[in-house]
Amino acid sequence: MKLNTNRTAQNNAGLYTLALRWVVGWTYFSAFWRRLIIDNKLIPEEAGYIGEKFNHFLPNALGIKPIIEYLVLNPEALHVAMVSFTIVEAIVGLFIILGLFTRLMSVGVFLLAMGILLGSGWIGTTCLDEWQIGVLGVASGFTLFLTGSGAYSLDNYLMKRQHSVTKKKWFTFLGSGNLQLKNMPKIVLGGAIIIIGLTLFTNQVFHGGVFGTLHNKSVRPKVEISNIQHDDSVLSFEMYRVEGADVYGSFMIGIEILDENKQVVKSLGQEELSQYPTSKIHNHYVAKIKPGKHSLILPLGAKADIHIDLKGLEIKDNYSVKLIDISGVEWVANIQ
């Protein structure tokens, strides 16, 4: 009698999370649907390639930055990863919607959401978009593992017909049914504490959302200047765009070399930068700095070495290089 009661309670729990299961399933399956069926975003040479969007995650990713950097430095490996990731999203999303091997797929939801959270939880212009998706996905994956799926699922269909696969010991842990774990209340409490801890930690790291000053790294572009070198004929330096909206570039309309009195001794204007030779831009990653119609365009996460002809200009101590964005934001670094 107690066993039947437990089964009924477990089945009801799976039923009550039906809307959650369908919505979570669609969020992952729809990524595949949008990316491949509605509009193919897996072609590296075309605009909108998902690998470039993945590159946007790099500057402020948490914990998994070396993995992202390896992939964006190796386009072939990146393409394989993006195709594989898309296939996994499709399988996890579809199986969650259907309620087939629900608990195994809920682990997939948990891991995919964790990847989103750590990789792009800092991105979001008007809201904490990617962070919210990530933490809610982690919590949803944990919840669906505990409940499994009840009525209106293929797991339940197989169990009702006593299919041989449902009689395997592992099915309860990979599919649905009465999850027999000792100290279940403590497991639920422990998991919830870990997840709320992860939520508060990432909220603070990415956005200062728990205490201190709130910040949003997606509002204004920020460009880092480093590795400045020069000789009698060429000045070179590295530009790396690390903040700002992921869907909107930084538009560089001016590069100036300043003397020790902060007077301009050489200047590249908007027209020159819009026609800047690509041979003098050495991009590191998939997202590329390149000349556009009216400026030099810097996508989020793009890093490149820029080479400027000095044409007889002698660089002295305390000279500096200044970058000017179309928004009026400027970045200055001293030339050593």
Question: Your description of this structure?
Answer:
The structure is a single chain. The chain has 336 residues and is α+β, with helices and mostly antiparallel strands. It folds into 2 domains: 2-207, no CATH class; 222-334, Immunoglobulin-like (Sandwich), CATH 2.60.40. It is built from 11 helices and 10 strands. The chain has helices at residues 2-16, 18-38, 50-56, 65-73, 75-98, 102-120, 129-147, 154-160, 171-174, 184-207, 270-274; strands spanning 222-230, 234-243, 250-258, 264-268, 281-283, 290-291, 296-298, 303-309, 320-325, 330-334. Strand 9 and strand 10 (330-334) form a beta hairpin. Helix 2 (18-38) runs antiparallel to helix 5. The chain is elongated, with a radius of gyration of 26 Å. The protein starts with a helix and ends with a strand. The model has no long low-confidence stretch (mean pLDDT 92).
Describe the main β-sheet briefly.
6 strands, antiparallel
Shape: elongated
Number of strands: 10
Mean pLDDT: 92
Helix content: 40-55%
How many domains, as an integer?
2
Order of helices and strands: HHHHHHHHHHEEEEHEEEEEE
Weakly predicted, low-confidence segments: none
Number of helices: 11
Distance between the termini: 81 Å
Radius of gyration: 26 Å
